[in-house]
Specification:
83 residues, 28% helix, elongated, alpha+beta, 2 helices, two-stranded antiparallel sheet, two-stranded parallel ribbon
């Protein structure tokens, strides 16, 4: 997928570590479907959030697929209001 702008053109790949370091100067990166309530993230949630920040993600929208996971998403949002 190509991201186009007046001054910037870059190729987006599945490996976001290949994005130009200055991409945050041109775009506000928001992860709009993070399933951070999944058990696989419980042990290293802080490092997941840190890696997202390190590559320029400014906001994360946590998803819920049930009442319980939506409550967990709300709990995470309250614990990490800046993310």
């Amino acid at each position: 997928m190509n991201i186009l702008s007046e001054n910037v053109r870059c190729q987006v790949s599945q490996d976001f570590s290949t994005l130009p370091l200055d991409i945050a100067d041109h775009y506000l990166l928001i992860d709009i479907g993070a399933n951070l309530t999944n058990r696989k993230f419980q042990r290293d949630l802080q490092s997941v959030l840190q890696r997202a920040e390190d590559v320029g993600v400014k906001k994360i929208i946590v998803t819920g697929t049930s009442i319980n996971s939506s409550r967990e998403a709300l709990r995470l949002a309250r614990l990490h209001p800046g993310n």
